[in-house]
């Protein structure tokens, strides 16, 4: 219900909004707000859990049982789900009383250093896995001390052990260090999330048994209680993972993804191209052969031979989600696309693309977003002064449609009616669109180039007409800044993501969202449609990437591994792979079908704001705040992948250290961070950014 948008209250519940403010008509949810104070009110937020498959609450309607029973169910979902091994599940009534069981505050340091000593002295093969416990235990023990008002003990505990944590948790620890009183915890969203969403650790059975034995021998109930209540230990059979394998996957706000999260079937194939008759001359027959794909993107080389009208076996059914019908103008555009495709440069290590850089000079208004039309005829900039500026980058100027009085004089039957309705008096290279009341953080052209989307700090997404250069609709649904928006490759649908931690799916003719994708623990910073439009990828400041199913709103993939907020996403043209970039300066590559990380590209030294695959998918281009564009060999990166069942089941990924072999070129600007990349239909690479003098 929360995902299908039964109103904001349902969305707030799925989000983990503050307990007191959730108003809803469902008695089951209201019951959650009624947890007695002191019984771990923050933990009442396991409201997120009962909706999830496999949760003990999933089978029962929360609204149908008495209040006491509902609270027990919720507590059970929280603590019983904590450990996978069945015989360790405590009975539910014990769980509720355990909420306020706390050990002697003076012994917390002893408990933690005892466990630390045990882990550091254990065998190498177990040490790496068990070391994952340090961070979540450190945070929960500190929070427990603060929550129970042992402020001096909490301070001493923090000072003694915070230096031992992994460097990628430094930002979280900075937030944590400011929480020194119980009152501070109430309004702090990050910590509320930490207390209420389970931190996931993936550990082999041998390492888990070793830990369990140690804690039981030492009678160390304090740590065992935290493990039971706040951690989700995902146990797998087989060899323990190495430090390198674990480091590749950890770093997100809530640990790793549960393996179950990446098991759902994903239709990552491309939809069959609609067939329509086009009068082709000799030159175009070649183009028909090289026919363009939905987002005018091409599959990789290995698919080029099989361009018959066969359905891709991994593609979703053609009518799985309703897509708009092709208009005549769309068909003409596809024909143009095919002609361009016939003249496309085949890229590779021996044939790198030329790069054309559009530098925004004197952009004192502050450039915050860029997009380029698919046919590379227009470029748009979103600015911090709340304006949206559209330029023509071809000799053809931008013109508006004539006024109604002038239109009545035009012969509607004439062949060049589309040319005649344009008003030459309005022709100019630049159009400025006013309407937002805050910085514009995202822009996106529609595939047919008739519309433009922009999203802003003012909480709205606006749809602009590129015929009249006026605002047609303001979509209101986000209550906070909207960081990104993007049109579907087929038009009609678009997605937005913002500071309220959810992504929303919209259709241009509905003023309310069709889907609300709730699950991220921090801002949704970037959004991307899959080339077949059935899925949406979102990147977040919680350092995870999620893939959502447009049909039912379910989250079908959770990818962890980045050590900072995600700022760029790009699907490969064949729909099989996803590339992601973040503030950690790494590009990670993911196999969508198997739900696995398959590559890591190191080289950038700052946030990666732009990623784009070439039209046939042979080259991946990345643009960064370090003022460089880098080109990577995508074909080589994705060949010979280890995606057997064992790897999928345990996450034993072996990433080759081959960034240098895959890097085909690095191109520096004088002093311009790269904020957008775009491959033209002939594979010329366009890049854009604003010159910064410092």
From TrEMBL:
It comes from the Eukaryota. Residues 103-231 form the TFIID subunit TAF5 NTD2 domain. Transmembrane segments: none annotated. InterPro entries: TFIID_NTD2, TFIID_NTD2_sf, WD40/YVTN_repeat-like_dom_sf, WD40_PAC1, WD40_repeat_CS, WD40_repeat_dom_sf, WD40_rpt. Keywords: Nucleus, Repeat, Transcription, Transcription regulation, WD repeat. SUPFAM superfamilies: Taf5 N-terminal domain-like, WD40 repeat-like. GO terms for molecular function: RNA polymerase II general transcription initiation factor activity. Coiled coil: none annotated. GO terms for biological process: transcription initiation at RNA polymerase II promoter. The keyword Transcription regulation applies. The keyword Transcription applies. It is found in: Nucleus. Residues 301-312 have a biased composition (Basic and acidic residues). Residues 278-289 have a biased composition (Acidic residues). WD repeats lie at residues 360-401, 433-468, 475-506, 517-558, 559-592, 601-633. Belongs to the WD repeat TAF5 family. This is Transcription initiation factor TFIID subunit 5. It comes from Drymodes brunneopygia. The gene is Taf5.
